[in-house]
Amino acid sequence: MRLGLAFFSFLVSVLTLAVTMPAAALTLDFHRETTVGGPRVTVGDVADCLDGELICQALLDREVARAPAPGGLMRLAAVEVGKTVRRLLPQEIELELTGAANIDIRRVGRQITADDILTRIDEYLRDQAARFPEAEIRFTPTERPLPFMLPEGEISWEIIPASPGLLGSSRIAVLLKVDGKVRKNLSIPGKLEVFAPVAVAKEALAKGDLLSPEQFSLEKRDLSGLDAPVTNLQTVAGLKLNRSLKAGEILTNRAAQTPPVVHRGELVKLVARQGAMLVTAQGVAQSDGALGQMIRVENSNSKKIVRGQVSGPGVVEVPL
């Protein structure tokens, strides 16, 4: 609709000029080459308009062709431009074409290279390193991405790993916007490695062993594919192994647990508190329970099953 109104206004201005002016000649003097920044090629891009100042002003911004892709080159025949302009002019105005018979049109743009892309990925990974203390993060693409051109404008980047948690990502997406509009979307396959200090067994350990920090050393290993490895040796003190470990094997949080202080079938003290009031009873634990864990206990008097939190060896607190 806006284009139709603009064209109508242009015709009105030209017809008005035609009525108020004697028959005149309009000359378009074509350039041999020109450069454009956007998707349109106008009369003013390819030629100088002579002999009719007011009509020329109305013509200069008229589109005569679509520009090539950013960084691209096209050739436009002057006679084709003349045909477009002729259709816009009243018959009373003669049109003369001078200058180059063909115009080479290049569209400017910004080239994005493989180094640009990989540098942006490295910057993103350095920002993510705070999530993995003392970590070294590396991404090695399967192959270097090919260069491409973007239109002129403000470029913004968005880096998106395949896995939201970063670990395990086998590809990284790169989204490029120019002036807020998506212009390029890449998916780059590769190997993502996150090297960080983890707890490694100094010697073979058996299932059921109670652990101490002295049994482990911190060594940098690739976290990719590891399930929640232990990164702080002090946290292993007093833990119990769920399975055996070989010398040099990495300790994960799933491989160890806090040993129970209440065991299934043993008598425990049930404690209920409300303000200054303290009520106690005897019960039988229905499962093992570590400190702070919720377990089921059978009240020895009422035979009712209640749920409570293990607060110490042989003690379970229940709500009133």
> How many separate domains?
4
Please trace the helix and strand order, writing H or E for each element: HEEEHEHEEHEEEHEEEEEEEEEEEEE
Overall mean pLDDT: 88
Distance between the termini: 74 Å
The fourth-level CATH homologous superfamily of the largest domain is: eubacterium ventriosum atcc domain
Record field, number of beta strands: 22
What's the overall geometry?
elongated
- Secondary-structure-based class equals alpha+beta
CATH class of the largest domain, please?
Answer: Mainly Beta
Report the β-strand fraction as a percent range: 35-45%
Condensed summary:
With 320 residues, the chain is an alpha+beta fold. It has helices at 2-20, 43-46, 53-59, 78-88, 114-128, and strands spanning 25-30, 33-36, 40-42, 47-50, 63-66, 73-77, 94-99, 102-107, 110-112, 136-141, 148-150, 155-161, 171-178, 181-201, 216-222, 240-241, 256-257, 267-274, 277-285, 294-299, 305-312, 315-317.
